[in-house]
Design brief:
The structure holds 2 protein chains of 2 kinds. By secondary structure, chain A is α/β, with parallel strands linked by helices. Chain A has 16 helices and 19 strands. In chain B, α4 links the parallel β3 and β4. The chains are: A alpha/beta, B alpha/beta. The complex binds iron/sulfur cluster.
Chain lengths: ~475, ~220
């Protein structure tokens, strides 16, 4: 019988199925970070439990780590305690850990693929909703809560129900200056932030095939913002080329066997999906969010919409509240909106390709005088090192950007990097919720190119027109 | 996990779409390494007029306009909410904070996936009712001080003053766990042999998933 990619992944991981369809699912890889793991380790300790398979886990601190002056340690005592707790837990339970001074340290969703710890055909979980990122490799990857973190540690399994399947076909050719982030935002704009609830979304079509692994990760990263737990892309030559030679990927004869197996992680031609829709990307413009939910998005040529035009009362209220929080008036052209802060980073857009794209826009220019801070935070130590080898750090610094150490940083502002109340930020991250980047802060989600262009112009601008 | 069988309680209405987990428990409180102490910071940004930091000792001014602070809703154990409640991050601190505050059940037209799961695993019952029913409940709560609901998990029904408001769906397995306060780990470890058997087969089919750690680095 023809199967979708999701069904192949699911079926190959069912340990046991119960009468009501709940399945005991085997987990191949568990990624661990400091925020959602301490209570899980404490739970194991309290009941005298050990890890089922320590080698299936890989830990890194990312959410709380400082992005500058690391040699001085962590000044915030609560952050420091959380990171020390991770170190101690990993030692006690024999979990492999990339410590803060390890060049491999980085945002968990950048580090995993970079190490080859993310492989096709795997089930991958992490106590973080953006685990959907790893689906770009033809793996079933999703975020879990702390109770489930503890369960995976103790049993290597989770109790779950099968998701419904949706295929989003993105066809056509992106124009220059438009990228995976714009595709992701446009999809969420159409589907809505709850449109994918209960589904695993497979991204397919010529525009997805043409994307690099970095671009596919950006797309799958944001599947959760459409409500889907998992995003997926089928395996092809691009996937396999990316994985070759990665430290955790198999090598030698095992590599050949693995590749032969991985090629099967695609949806069969006849496989039926529960829902399908298509979108052409030929005319897609760079996207900018204007509100406090990722679905509140318009093309850069667009204007802030008028809540009065919204028929549904709950949506009208939500829109009005969002514009109030964002301090935007209906009808304002997005290109007239000034920015105070620019953040290039996060698990959505802090890979080498993202930094290259931003650097191309910035090269030889200066950050506009009205911009108070412009930050580049590489996704991992290895991304940082690669960028420095190419001289990207010098391009950013010459333009007036700060060049930081890897971590989540201003994506969620758990460390010192945050917006002041009322500050407006062009951010390459994935959530524009109220207070996400600092209490009272206002976030506009954009691509790395668009964030770079906004830094130079001092307001949002169509990167295609800037050069 | 806390057992859940039947809850009768005062209803507090939170009339907002897409309430995200950042709003339920802001990130600065996630630095804790324990499982308790989050209730005081539930909806922190909305609940207080001054900004909150973990471990803060200065008394904070409650925001009188926020619904949880209105005297008529004090002691509520059922939260009435709008669609896509709990969207955003996977933080289980969100259900922990709600439970610690005293919420035992949430009624909404839809929930975000991970939040829904996390709630069930902690004995907080998410109840999905049709949008039109939820609309009517919002009106009823608004109109009548002291409005309360009874949520009967065994019967999978919601009652208001004895009147049957409607039924809701829940996976039979999850229902069993809630009724008995069973956690997933205990259940799973009882099936240890199945897991071992699966591993033996997978090791044969896909040995690269099990390659020893030492050989990799
Ligand atoms: S970069 Fe942002 S979205 Fe990604 S894991 Fe870190 S906090 Fe979460």
């Amino acid at each position: 019988m023809a199967k979708t990619l999701y069904e192949k992944l699911w079926d190959s991981h069912v340990v046991r199925e119960l009468a009501d369809g709940t399945c005991l699912i085997y987990i191949d890889r568990h990624l661990v970070h400091e925020v959602t793991s301490p209570q899980a380790f404490a739970g194991l300790r309290a009941r005298g439990r050990r890890l089922w398979r320590a080698d299936a886990n890989l830990a890194v601190a990312d959410h709380n780590v400082p992005t500058k002056d690391r040699a001085l340690g962590i000044s915030d005592p609560t952050s420091r305690l959380q990171i020390e707790t991770l170190d101690r837990n990993c030692r006690e339970f024999h979990v492999p850990l990339f410590a803060m001074d390890d060049v491999r340290q980085g945002i968990v969703h950048v580090m995993g693929p970079e190490q080859g710890a993310t492989l096709p055909g795997m089930t991958i979980v992490c106590g973080d909703s953006h685990t959907s990122t790893h689906g770009a490799f033809g793996a079933l990857a999703y975020g879990i809560g702390t109770s489930e973190v503890e369960q995976v540690m103790a049993t290597q399994c989770l109790l779950q129900k099968r998701s419904r399947t949706m295929r989003v076909r993105l066809e056509g050719t992106l124009r220059s200056g438009v990228g995976a982030k714009d595709m992701a935002l446009a999809v969420i704009g159409r589907l809505g932030t709850a449109g994918g609830t209960g589904y695993a979304i497979e991204f397919a079509g010529s525009a997805v095939r043409a994307l690099s692994m970095e671009g596919r990760m950006t797309l799958c990263n944001m599947a959760i913002e459409a409500g889907a737990r998992a995003g997926l892309v089928g395996v092809d030559d691009t996937t396999i080329a990316y994985l070759a030679g990665r430290p955790f990927a198999p090598s030698g004869a095992l590599w050949d066997r693995a590749v032969a197996d991985w090629r099967g992680y695609v949806s069969d031609a006849e496989a039926p999906f529960d829902r399908e829709w298509d979108m052409s990307v030929d005319d897609l413009a760079p996207q900018v969010t204007f509100g406090t939910s990722p679905e509140m998005v318009v093309p850069i040529e667009g204007r802030v919409p008028d809540p009065a035009a919204e028929k549904d009362p709950a949506r009208r209220d939500a829109l009005a509240a969002a514009l109030d929080y964002m301090d935007l008036r209906p009808g304002t052209a997005m290109t007239d909106v000034p920015v105070d802060v620019v953040f290039i980073g996060s698990c959505t857009n802090a890979r080498i390709e993202d930094l290259r794209a931003a650097a191309r826009v910035v090269d030889g220019r200066r950050v506009a005088p009205g911009v108070r801070r412009a930050l580049v935070v590489p996704g991992s130590g290895l991304v940082k090192r690669a960028a420095e080898a190419e001289g990207l750090d010098r391009v950013f610094i010459a333009a007036g950007f700060e060049w930081r150490e890897p971590g989540c940083s201003m994506c969620l502002a758990m460390n010192a990097d945050r917006l002041e109340s009322g500050e407006r930020c062009a951010s390459t991250s994935n959530r524009n919720f109220e207070g996400r980047q600092g209490q009272g802060g206002r976030t506009h989600l954009v691509s790395p190119q668009m964030a770079a262009a906004a830094a130079i112009a001092g307001h949002f601008v169509d990167v295609r027109r800037q050069s | 996990m806390q057992r859940f069988e039947k809850e009768t309680g005062l209803v507090v209405p939170l009339d907002r779409l897409n309430v995200d987990t950042d709003a339920i428990i802001p990130k600065q409180f996630l630095k804790a390494v324990g499982r308790t102490g989050f209730g005081a910071n539930l909806f922190d940004n909305w609940r207080y007029l001054d900004p909150g930091e973990p471990g803060q000792e200065v008394p904070r001014r409650p925001n009188p306009d926020f619904v949880l602070n209105k005297p008529r809703y004090r002691g509520a154990s059922i939260l009435l909410a709008r669609g896509n409640f709990g969207c955003g991050s996977s933080r289980e601190h969100a259900p922990w904070a709600l439970l610690e505050y005293g919420i035992r059940a949430i009624v909404a037209p839809s929930f975000a996936d991970i939040f829904y799961n996390n709630s069930l695993k902690n004995g907080l019952l998410p109840v999905v009712l049709p949008e039109a029913v939820v609309d009517r409940l919002f009106q009823a709560v608004e109109a009548e001080a002291g409005y309360s609901l009874t949520i009967d998990l065994r019967a999978q029904r919601v009652f208001a003053n004895g009147e049957d408001i409607g039924g809701f769906a829940i996976d039979p397995f999850r229902k069993e766990c809630l009724l008995n306060g069973l956690d997933d780990i205990g259940w799973t470890l009882a099936h240890e042999a199945d897991i071992r058997e699966y591993e033996v087969r997978r090791r044969r089919e896909a040995p690269w998933l099990f390659a020893p750690e030492e050989a990799r680095s």
